[in-house]
Amino acid sequence: MLARLPEGVPVIIGRTAAWMERRRTPVVAIALTVVVLAIATVFALRSTSDVSLFDAPLHADQVTEVASALTLWGEPHSAAPGSDQIFVPAARRETLLLRLTLAGLPHAHVPTSADELAEPISPLAPSALVDDRRRLGLEGDLVAALRRIAGVEDASVFITPAGTDISALGDPPQTSAAVQIVAHPGASLAPAAVDGIRNLVAAAVPGLSPDRVAVTDEDGALLKDAPQQDRTLARESRLQSSVQSALDAVFGPGAAVVRVRVTTEGTAVSLQSTRVTPHGLLDADAGREHGADGGRAYDKERHVQHYAYDTVVEHRSSPADVIRRISVAVFLDARRVDTGRRDDVAALVRAAAGADLRSGDDVVVGVLPFAARTVAVAAPAAAAPRSRLAITAVTALAALVLTAAGAFWPRIRARIDAPAAPQTDPAAAIGGAIGAEAPRTAAYVLNGIPAAIRSRVLAGFDDDRRLSIEECLAAWRDDG
Model confidence at 109, in pLDDT bands (50, 70, 90)? Predict the structure, then answer.
């Protein structure tokens, strides 16, 4: 087979091999560079390619829910029409899964009326099955509606239809419903929202009244009345906010910390009083009747009077929150507030609290050095792809450096292997320069150089010339 090659091919191969032999190091460096760049390119392409966000297929409502969240977050994604998956960059998949998990997305799929209608049903199916499917679809519609309420993370609805067994003893059970609300972390539903949920479910289910709809939270507690606000905590919060804002305005934010404690006492008392206010005679009726019955005579007389009056019923309740003592503690940063201003701060606290503080209440002001605060800088959302791009750039730069080092290595190696130039002895150079000069001139030159070099220069002369130069140096020192 080699015999069939043109005559010039072996010559070219031989010259190429000779050239590579002379430049072995640069060729190896270029080959390594190509390999490193190929690996970096593969990693870069893998990090920027799109992959499916979830391993399991999603329902259409879940795809829409996740796509809406990714759009609001500004995350790149794609989903084909009718697809059961969402595709995102591979570098962002783990971050997006964690973020969706923290947001509680996607919600569990609940079949709605549209799903139930889309599934075919046999005409011979019993009516009970049709009613159950209709009820499940209605429950799914209500869950989808409740999830759109502000503060609601998820919901479950259970509808119990009315009993239709005419042979059962007693009154048949009426239609009822149970709703479980899972609120967002830190959120709570207002009583008006709970009443709205109860009326929404009752209006959607035929024959259901709002009083037969039970609404609970994720812990099973019944949501009905507004929780009673702790008046003691409200007083503490109001007083603490008033004092804290005043100190921040004087010393700047972070220079003072305020804590307020309100101690209450008393007994809860509930009173009811009824007051009747008469308004005089309203009308009157009088009559007299005479007759006989069984041989006996009788005489009846009737007098009826109606009076007008007003009845007022008053309910009074007194909670057990009579303030007994208020304690205010103020911590000042010693690095920002002078210790001598403690009394001024105490007076400022009493003035900011106003009528809430009495003569027996405590106001304690302490000046202490605050601990240094460390601020954690959150990484941006696009840190992962940027870090991968940075790694790719550093790899490419390292490859270029290796290529350049391989190309210039022969020259660098030649300079390293070259023998160092001999260093000239300054004493010998000076001795050679003044060797033919007069002793007085030589002494003048040597007088201005360091003593160590001067001694070495003098050691290079013969005894007569060295003595004559030393005499001139001594004369120079005596004249100086």
Answer: confident
DSSP per residue, 42-82: HHHHHHHSEEES-SS---HHHHHHHHHHHHHHT---B--TT
CA dist 110 and 147 (Å) reads: 12
Nearest by Cα to 458 from 478, 476, 480, 473:
473
Contacts for 436 with CB less than 8 Å, ≥ 6 apart = none
State the DSSP code for 222.
B
DSSP 79-106: --TT-S--EEEGGGHHHHHHHHHHHT-S
CB neighbour list of residue 456: distance below 8 Å, 6 or more residues apart: 427
Sort strands 256-265 and 213-216 into parallel, antiparallel or unpaired.
unpaired
* CA distances for 268 relative to 230, 234, 257, 264, 273, angstroms: 14, 18, 34, 12, 17
What pLDDT was estimated at residue 375? Answer: 46
The closest of 239, 197, 441 to 349, measured between CA atoms, is: 239
Q: What number of other Cβ atoms are within 10 A of residue 407's Cβ? A: 15
Please state, in angstroms and rounded to a whole number, the distance separating the CA atoms of residues 135 and 116: 10
- Phi and psi for 88 in degrees, rounded to 5? -135, 165
CA 146 to chain centroid: 26
Six token digits for residue 384: 């992962």
Q: Which long-range contacts (CB under 8 A, 24 or more apart) does 297-303 make?
A: none
Which pair of tokens denotes residue 176?
């009822």
456 pLDDT tier (thresholds 50, 70, 90): confident
The answer, yes or no, to whether residue 280 has pLDDT greater than 60, is yes
Distance CA 39, CA 394 (A): 13
Q: Which two tokens stand for residue 292?
A: 């006989």
Cβ-based neighbour number of residue 280 at 10 Å: 7
pTM of the model: 0.39
CA atoms within 13 A on the CB side of 415: 4
Cα Rg of the chain (Å, integer): 50
Distance CA(239)–CA(325), nearest Å, equals: 13
The vertex-215 CA angle with 191 and 109, nearest 5°, equals 120
340: left (phi over 0), alpha (psi -120 to 50) or beta: alpha
DSSP string of 336-354? TS-GGGHHHHHHHHHHHHG
Q: Are 315 and 270 in contact (CB under 8 A)?
A: yes
Let me know: does 353 contact 243? Beta carbons within 8 Å: yes
